[in-house]
Each structure stands twice: as C-alpha cells, then as structure tokens.
Design goal:
The protein is mainly alpha-helical. It has one domain. The chain is built from 5 helices and 2 strands; from the N terminus they run H-H-H-E-E-H-H. The protein has a two-stranded antiparallel sheet. Helix 1 packs across helix 3. It is flat, with a radius of gyration of 18 Å.
Amino acid sequence: MTPDKPLPITKRMVWEAYQLVAENGKAAGVDGQSLDEFAQDLGNNLYKLWNRMASGSYLPPAVKRAEIPKANGGIRPLGIPTVADRVAQMVVKQYLEPGLDRVFDPDSYGYRPGKSAHLAIEQTRKRC
C-alpha cells in the first residue's frame, strides 16, 4: 500500500476478489458489460477499481433489476450489480468477514460462511 492511498486495499485483494467473482455468474449489470467483456481489458479494469477503492472515491453504480418468476406465479425482483461492483463487494467481504465472524454467537446462522437455515433447523431438532 502506498502512503497516498488511505484505505488498506491492495491490488492483490482486488485480483483475488475478481478470481472468486469469475467463478460465479456471468450476467451483465446496468452497464451491459459481461464478465467476458470485463476480462478483455482486465488489467485496466482492475486497476481503476483498485485505485478508486483504495483512495476512498469508489461509488457503486446502479443495480440492474431483473424479475424472476416464482413457483406460485408471482414475481421476485432480483438486483444484478455490474461486474466491477461484484468485485468491489467481494473485496469488502473478504476484508471484513474474518474479523466480524468472530464476534457472532455460534448459534447465529444468518448470512454466515458455513451456516444455513438447514443447519439451524438441524441444531434446533437436536436441542428439542
């Protein structure tokens, strides 16, 4: 990290976050840029993202709304962030999650790595 960058975000963190994002869905966000298109200028795209995040000037773009049909005939809205924003979100997740996870109670199952609603139900059945 250089002294002119106030936030502890390294280029390596952005690269590792991109690799994790690249393993998942390839849908384009509101900017229309797919994961494959993002990868065509990968070095420049990751550098710009790192520069904005590390300097504290990153602002997430709007999220594309998609409607997913539900089994009962209804519709569920789904937000699709841009590829760059998915990478930014992953950087933050990878940075914050290890430290924050330690402060949660072991019986907290919501939105935690290695935890699920099914595990919560299983634990409840054991205790009842």
